[in-house]
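Duplicate of #3305? Posting structure anyway:
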């Protein structure tokens, strides 16, 4: 795989190459109360993820050998340039779509057998949005799960980490016939095609969400987007792992 930022022929856009991700900063153990937590900044997008343990499971998981995991997503009112109303409507379609993506991604990463009869709840809150919020939430959620694991191991509750597949994520898109990694808001708004790619550290795909925004694209372009996304997701995951230890 080509490492983002080092591909031949890259040209600069606002200080970074086409296949270069924005600067990433992550800190774990940012909440005194949550069982696991992390705050992450990707460019100007900033999110906080917390993990809570609920000592019950939904009805469809009763009697199973493993626990359950669910994710919730929200954007603070001034996470965007214009104030967003607080999301009081629980039927918000975009929010539910993102929550399903987050839940599937985190469940794929974990062995939930150590959490039998328990539910892990990952709350992802967008503090500031400039594109790639769901990607940033996956990266922050992974860091928060790592924090949970380290805390439980230190307390003697877990013998080993339940994270079996470290996961990364990135957005990738086609902007003016240029393939670009890690889109900010303006790039995302003008992209003719875009994907959110979730993948493991060794380049295996968990999910690719997205497609053409206007005219159809050919399969070769889609595959190029996917390959760039796989490389970018692995790179951002390595950055998260390096910073959280």
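Output from current build:
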């Amino acid at each position: 795989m080509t490492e983002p930022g080092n591909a031949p022929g890259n040209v600069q856009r606002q200080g970074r190459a086409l296949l270069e991700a924005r600067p990433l900063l992550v800190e774990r153990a940012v909440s005194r109360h949550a069982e696991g937590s992390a705050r992450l900044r990707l460019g100007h997008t900033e999110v906080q993820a917390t993990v809570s343990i609920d000592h019950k499971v939904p009805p469809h998981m009763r009697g199973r050998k493993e626990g359950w995991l669910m994710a919730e997503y929200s954007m603070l009112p001034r996470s965007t340039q214009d104030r967003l109303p607080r999301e009081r409507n629980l039927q918000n379609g975009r929010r539910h779509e993102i929550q399903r993506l987050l839940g599937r991604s985190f469940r794929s990463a974990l062995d939930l057998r150590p959490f039998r009869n328990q539910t892990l709840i990952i709350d992802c809150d967008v503090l500031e949005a400039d594109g790639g919020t769901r990607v940033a939430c996956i990266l922050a959620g992974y860091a928060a799960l790592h924090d949970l694991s380290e805390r439980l191991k230190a307390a003697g509750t877990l013998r080993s980490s339940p994270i079996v597949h470290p996961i990364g994520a990135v957005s990738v898109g086609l902007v003016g016939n240029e393939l670009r990694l890690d889109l900010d808001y303006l790039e995302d708004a003008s992209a003719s095609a875009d994907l959110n790619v979730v993948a493991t550290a060794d380049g295996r795909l968990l999910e690719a969400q997205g497609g053409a925004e206007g005219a159809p694209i050919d399969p070769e372009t889609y595959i190029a987007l996917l390959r760039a996304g796989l490389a970018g997701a692995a790179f951002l995951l390595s950055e998260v792992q390096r910073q959280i230890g």
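Confirmed duplicate; merging threads. Residues 1-12 have pLDDT under 50 and may be disordered. The helical segments are 93-109, 133-154, 185-190, 219-244.
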